[in-house]
Amino acid sequence: MSKYDEIRQAAYEANMQLPKLGLVLFTFGNVSAVDRQEGVFAIKPSGVPYEDLSPDNMVIVDFESTIVEGSLRPSSDTKTHAVLYKHWEHIGGIVHTHSTYATAWAQSQRDIPIYGTTHADYLATDIPCAPPMSDEMIEGNYEYQTGFQILNCFQERGISPKEVEMMLVGNHAPFTWGKTAAKAVHNSAVLETVAQMALLTEQINPQAPRLKDALINKHYLRKHGPDSYYGQS
Amino acid sequence: MSKYDEIRQAAYEANMQLPKLGLVLFTFGNVSAVDRQEGVFAIKPSGVPYEDLSPDNMVIVDFESTIVEGSLRPSSDTKTHAVLYKHWEHIGGIVHTHSTYATAWAQSQRDIPIYGTTHADYLATDIPCAPPMSDEMIEGNYEYQTGFQILNCFQERGISPKEVEMMLVGNHAPFTWGKTAAKAVHNSAVLETVAQMALLTEQINPQAPRLKDALINKHYLRKHGPDSYYGQS
Amino acid sequence: MSKYDEIRQAAYEANMQLPKLGLVLFTFGNVSAVDRQEGVFAIKPSGVPYEDLSPDNMVIVDFESTIVEGSLRPSSDTKTHAVLYKHWEHIGGIVHTHSTYATAWAQSQRDIPIYGTTHADYLATDIPCAPPMSDEMIEGNYEYQTGFQILNCFQERGISPKEVEMMLVGNHAPFTWGKTAAKAVHNSAVLETVAQMALLTEQINPQAPRLKDALINKHYLRKHGPDSYYGQS
Amino acid sequence: MSKYDEIRQAAYEANMQLPKLGLVLFTFGNVSAVDRQEGVFAIKPSGVPYEDLSPDNMVIVDFESTIVEGSLRPSSDTKTHAVLYKHWEHIGGIVHTHSTYATAWAQSQRDIPIYGTTHADYLATDIPCAPPMSDEMIEGNYEYQTGFQILNCFQERGISPKEVEMMLVGNHAPFTWGKTAAKAVHNSAVLETVAQMALLTEQINPQAPRLKDALINKHYLRKHGPDSYYGQS
Description:
Four copies of one chain form a homotetramer.
Chain A: H1 5-20, E1 29-35, E2 40-43, E3 59-62, E4 67-69, H2 78-87, E5 93-97, H3 100-108, H4 117-120, E6 129-130, H5 135-139, H6 142-157, E7 166-169, E8 174-178, H7 181-204, H8 213-224
Parallel strand pairs in A: 6-7
Antiparallel strand pairs in A: 1-2, 1-5, 2-3, 3-4, 5-8, 7-8
């Protein structure tokens, strides 16, 4: 028994959803779950195949990326998670994958335009794609700086991680988050679907217009506004 | 035992087909089954994962969207179903999904052109895409007005819901129906396949012509005309 | 026991491969197996779901499309099969599907160009797409005339059904055949894969050249020529 | 018991991964595993379906393609494997498939551009596509010459098979290798995913730039350089 059992279990279960949802090949992804009271999070160990994961081998790390408990090396992306947890105090879980369509948009260095209500059920703006990082950031403490690339993107655009729970790092791949690790995984699957639909939309009609404001507001607010009434179909 | 057991069972079974046929992610879809004698329909509860559905938790609603029986909240799209049942007296089941290819066509705001016999086996026209709704309709009783957007589209084009059992709401997603809930689900799967084939056809040959009238008539009438003889291969 | 047990079993097993190989939605496909000595073939009954098929409900039909044995209606495409068996005396099985990529090429009314060795391992030419049938043929004995559309296409191009075991009927869908029903199904799966690869090839490089003759000859002849030595990897 | 049991087992297990990873249709692929001390490798027999494979029916062949042990005919691509083992002394396993996206790039005769970090996690250059072979090479000892086409491509470009473990033979299909047969299969799956992502990237943004050098170096070196610290997420 450990006081971290709950986040270990949550991180384990969320990580195991990634292959089931078709979001990862081999070990190309990781999920973490945070304990705000203890100031630590549980994250997937590095390079361990999904079939060998268990709650026990999740690694406990604090917001300075120091290992608190666990015998395995934490995911190489741990520093990015730590930066986000430290600066975004309301989020409870983070996911990083290289899912096919979302990664293709990241490689294309384009925001994913909001083309339909599937997208607007989750966020009221395009899905942001941060520009590729500067050489200085890359050559320095890369994974740590990746966290700041994400923070800076949101600050510059004046958008809130409470309202936009998914984004792309240019040339790299998607990150999502949420109140819990499970919700962050849910968002990863939604992002992948929305990314595919957006590409198909442009292929069917290269002049497809962005969703009109009335529909954006209706769909976003019926699920997320103070008077929300919508429970996903 | 309830006099609604039959439609509860039909709605339950039809809803469970959606994930099996790959037509939904999470809870992005709903099916209802009507009892014309009682003037009510059974519909999926809102936001409940497919693995937790049972015939018992289907919600019974009348054509004014009033809950008649059931402890859970009905699907948020219930009012759209109610409007269609009220005005189209011959239909027995309705499906709404956000299936990938059909939704991409809806986002593109284009009818799906009739390019081949797979399409003509089901309907003799392009698959209609209603325009996005007016701001007034969206900001008012949105899900109720969605029903009228569908009705209006069919009326303006002079097509019958008996002959065209599938359509797209622009910027939103597909709706299908049929004599039974099971047939409505069948139509949803056909729509998704036809939507994918139509995009691929345009990619292979941007000048691909619509299907000629003789083939449309032959394929549609051999399955649906008074002298139909065709049982789907 | 019936003297047709062998072809019933062969037709049954081959039909059951179609959903396993992802080549059919619902009942959009059919396979037949011929008995040359008896002058009959066994074919899937019309409109029966794959899960309800058994060797017993395959229908036995002669080359004039007359039912010889069986209580169910044979596939609506039976006349096309009958015409091909009657005129192409060496073939042992026939498959018709509406598989996604092959059907998209048929709808595009284009031959599938020979772009690589995967294609050349099976045939030394483009995969022919017969033009859509004339209105006269369509309005007459349609399924019977479909057989002649296929025969005419091969005759006009001077290609042999021994060397080219797959083709597309324009605006409709693919047909394949082979020495046995199992081989015909194998060819259907190969056609679908080659059709997808050819579209992707054109998307990656719109100027992609056809395969050079030396490679066509090498790959085709090492599997099919008199000195063949190749057993599919 | 045989002194080749270990490579037979390794080749068997690696071959069985190909259908599980969706990299082969029917028997369109083969894997081999080498024993450097004995100067032989174990390879899949020709034309045997995956479900009938066992460690026992792997064929043992030396670097001149002479069968050393085994009653079945070795894969038709055996000579290509032999040439690569003979000239690249550090590789332990080789895979050849006709996986869909990688083959489409090969048919397009284009290198796969390095567009993102998923690619850079594995190699620091574009994935090379060797030109189609000369008629002389094709008409001669074809499978043997295919090995030299691969060797020549690497030599001309001045790249090392230690650093680039995957490539395409123009108009044909991909080959991958690695320290073990299992790693070579891993590389085949990565290649297929990277090939799909690269096509999608060009579809989303035809002007998508290649990955910047700082990101290539960071991602490649954190996994492969002398100071590597990365364990695949």
